[in-house]
Structure formats: C-alpha cells, structure tokens
Specification:
alpha/beta, Rossmann fold, 2 domains
Length: about 325
C-alpha cells in the first residue's frame, strides 16, 4: 500500500522531516543509508524518495502517487529506479557491476536515476568495494539509498559517504493504526503490538488463525482461574494441544502476562492501559487481590525462564496453573 510523506513522517518524524525538507529545497544527498529494525518503513521511504524525484505532478515534497512515474515505481517497473536485493545469502560483486553498467547508460526519459540496495550489510567484500568506487564519484543526478538492519556491518568508508538516517521502532499506537489500516481487528492489533515492534511480524500474527485462537485460549484460562473451575483439565485438553512448540508457549505466556497486567490496571483505575480492552467486563468481574496478581506475574515469569532451560513444556504449564490457582 503506497504511503504519503505525511504518513511516513508520523512513523519516523526525524528521518521524514529531514528528507522532506531536502526535497523542498532540492538538496537531496547523493547517498543515504536508512538503518533500523525490520518493519520500520525503510523500504517505503526509499520508494517515496524515488517517487518524489520522478513525480510529474509533485506538490512541494508530496508525490501525487497517480501519475505514470509514481505508478511504475510502485509496481517496480520504472526504468530509472534500480533495486538490488541479495542473490541468495549475499549481494555479489556482479550485481553492483550490473548496477554501474545500467547507470552508465543515458536515460531515455530522464538523466535522473535512483538506486536502492536492500540489506546492504549482506554485500560481499568485493561488492562493497565496488560500490565504494561508485559512491566516490557520484553523478549529480543520481541518488543512492542503502537499507540495513545491521549498520555495524557496513564498511566505515561507505558510511562516511552516506547521510545516515536512523529509523526507530514504531510507537505502539502508530503500529496499531498501521495494522488496522491493513485489515486487522482492534483486539488482535492491540495484542500483536505488545508482542513486537515490527510491523511485518505484527501483521503476520494478525493474519494467523493460530494467533487468534491463542488469544482466545489465554482469555478462557484467565476466566477459568478466576472462577476456580478445573483449570488444570482445561490446560491439558486445550493449551498443550495448541502451544506445541517452545516459541508458541512463550508467546502464550507473554499474552498471559499481558492479561494479568490488565487485571492490575483495572484495579488501579488505569483502564486506558488495558490491552485486552474487549474483555473489560471479564477483567472487572475477577476480584483478585493485588498481592495475588503480583504473585501471578512472578509465577508466569518463572515459567518463561524454565522454558529456556529445556524443561518439559506440559510440566511447566501444569505447575504454573497449579500455582496460579492457589494464588
């Protein structure tokens, strides 16, 4: 989904403001390095730079997203926008040489050219040195945008020739809005945003039936524990069959931590911090003492630590539920 600079500036205020100011003043750098965690908008920003360079109907810094150039960049078919991705595990010297050869040609439509290198840290030593020569002799109408999640693996000589822009993890409220824009329900988006700062990972959670069922099982266990019904039987019948892998159970326990924190927030009158907002009625009906809730948080954290020590998953779960029941 194409984004506007206004949306990107909300996601990354500092980087977005610096880039849009440069576009308005026609002072784009010949080379940028966008560095930061996965899912923070680096590729979208790189493509937006290209659209701002080529858009035929741009207003100040904002490309129209509708003209022929904008549409071709969005679909990956613009002749003057070149994207380099790892070929297998690395970016090879030949790929950078192909890029140089492509950019040595005179453009049919324009002499402006933009190239984007994804996962720049995966360049082989030969590829990085070849790129370095390219960066040392920039053409006035060429803009390079390098993307990386591991800036410490980029050659210092390349870093020194780029303007470095750091992309920060998304704020929770912005991440939730991004997920809702992509069709996620508020309840799933709110939970996913607590488990990761990565937009792509959070979106994959929201699109998985397993994740939705896991959330439901966490709610049902909390309800069973509150009503002192047979929680152990519920865990043996439902949880153990659903949370088969260690990573899955870690996520289930993370959700259980969230819902117990919610119980505490409700008692403290801090309802705006509640993650399971769709379960407010349930949370308000459970009359735990604060001491019991704090103990429960401690028990869940202990269970998470036991999982890292390769203890039997069913055993960890059963012991946890017995402790939660006893309070």
């Amino acid at each position: 989904m194409a984004k506007t600079w206004e949306q990107l500036r909300m996601m990354q205020p500092i980087a977005g403001k610096m880039l849009t100011n440069s576009i308005v003043k026609q002072r784009l750098s010949h080379a940028y390095l966008l560095e930061g965690p996965k899912g923070t908008g680096k590729l979208e920003t790189a493509l937006q730079i290209a659209k701002s360079v080529f858009c035929s109907q741009r207003e100040r810094f904002e490309p129209c997203l509708a003209c022929n150039n904008c549409r071709r960049i969005e679909s990956g078919n613009h002749p003057n926008v070149y994207i380099v991705k790892p070929d297998g595990l690395s970016i090879k010297k030949q790929q950078i040489q192909d890029l140089q050869e492509e950019f040595s040609k005179t453009g049919l439509e324009s002499n402006k050219k933009v190239y984007i290198i994804e996962h720049a840290e995966r360049m082989t030593a030969n590829a990085a040195n070849t790129l370095l020569k390219f960066l040392e002799e920039p053409k006035s109408e060429t803009t390079a945008v390098l993307l990386t999640e591991q800036v410490q693996q980029i050659l210092d000589t390349i870093l020194s020739r780029c303007q470095i822009l750091t992309f920060l993890p998304l704020q929770k409220n912005l991440l939730i809005e991004q997920l809702k824009e992509r069709g996620a329900s508020l309840s799933l988006a709110g939970t996913a945003a607590q488990l990761t700062n990565n937009l792509e990972e959070a979106l994959s959670f929201c699109n998985e039936e397993w994740f939705a069922q896991a959330r439901t099982l966490v709610i049902k266990l909390c309800e069973a524990l509150g009503k002192e019904t047979s929680s152990l039987f519920f865990v043996q019948e439902k949880w153990i069959k659903h949370f088969v892998e260690k990573e899955q159970l870690q996520m289930g326990l993370d959700m259980l931590l969230l819902i117990y924190k919610d119980l505490l927030y409700v008692q403290l009158g801090e309802g705006e911090k509640v993650v399971f907002q769709d379960q407010r009625a349930l949370l308000e009906s459970l009359s735990y003492s604060q001491k019991r809730m704090i103990s429960a948080l401690s028990y869940i954290l202990e269970a998470k630590n036991k999982l890292n020590a390769n203890v039997s998953l069913p055993l960890v779960l059963e012991q946890l539920v017995l402790r939660l029941q006893e309070g």
